[in-house]
Design goal:
The chain has 230 residues and is an alpha/beta fold. Helix content is 20%, strand content 26%. It contains 4 helices and 12 strands; from the N terminus they run βαβαβαββββαβββββ. The chain has helices at 33-38, 55-72, 88-97, 146-157, and strands at residues 20-22, 50-53, 79-84, 104-108, 110-114, 117-121, 134-142, 162-170, 183-187, 193-194, 210-212, 227-229. The strands form 4 sheets. Strands 4-3-7-8-9 form a 5-stranded parallel sheet, sandwiched between helices. A 3-stranded antiparallel sheet has the order 2-11-10. A two-stranded antiparallel ribbon has the order 1-12. Helix 2 crosses helix 3. The chain is globular and about 50 Å long. The chain starts with 19 loop residues before the first strand and ends with a strand. The relative contact order is 0.19.
């Protein structure tokens, strides 16, 4: 069998060096046997100090929530509304485990965190009408409640038949506005978490577990952006 004429052998092709990422925080200790088994030793997990919720626990809890929701909405459908980008992993796994029709509506959220506080904007949120339909807001984490409150207001303005909220993680200690959450995967302490869709400046979303960054200071750490060496 001949070789494709445009294919370049791996040893003949040199890739340009990737920029080095300087994170705002680092793992304090070298990788141990436990951290290797947990996946903390890989490049994608650099800066994560410990696993809070393992991949196995996440999968089990998502299935439990999906089963509960399938019973709740057994007589019809429920439109699952999720705010990009943090909810992508949880929402995708949740709807695939639900045994009912579950259309998905993804909305873009602009979040601004600075010295003056937490600002959220949601321009042109919905592509389809939610009027008269059962709606479930699916969140990766409910923290201050600011984002969820705005999303609830946007959904209610569409006059749905019903509205409930399901979140993977709930961090009630950081709440600054009152919101109601109907389904909670895990209630967690006020720690800085990444993984399974949650990020720090775009990093860590692809981790299969939820991890904790102990050395991060929240929210001032969010104001620091990673620096790239060129």
């Amino acid at each position: 069998m001949g070789t494709a004429p445009n294919r370049v052998k791996a040893e003949e092709k040199s890739s340009p060096p990737r920029p080095q990422v300087v994170y705002a925080f680092y793992m304090s200790n070298g990788a141990t046997g436990l951290s290797r088994r947990n996946g903390l030793a890989g490049p994608a997990a650099k800066g994560v100090d410990r696993v809070l919720i393992s991949k196995t626990r996440l999968q089990r809890r998502v299935k439990e929530l999906a089963a509960q929701l399938s019973v709740e909405y057994a007589n019809g459908e429920v439109v699952c509304v999720g705010a990009l980008n943090g909810v992508i992993c949880f929402l995708a796994d949740l709807v695939r485990e639900m045994d009912i029709p579950a259309p998905v509506e993804l909305v873009h959220v602009d979040r601004f965190i600075d010295e003056d506080g937490h600002t959220v904007e949601m321009p042109n949120p919905f592509r389809e009408s939610l009027r008269g339909r059962d709606v479930l807001i699916v969140e990766d984490i409910v923290d201050t409640g600011v984002t969820l409150k705005l999303l609830e207001e946007k959904v209610l303005a569409e006059k749905p038949a019903s509205l409930k909220v399901c979140t993977l993680l709930d961090k009630p200690a950081h709440r600054i506005v009152e919101v109601q959450v109907d389904y909670v995967g895990f209630s967690i302490d006020p720690v800085f978490v990444v993984g399974y869709g949650l990020d720090y400046e775009g990093f860590y979303r692809n981790l299969p577990f939820v991890g904790v960054v102990d050395s991060a200071v929240w929210p001032p750490a969010l104001l620091e952006r990673p620096k790239f060496d060129t």
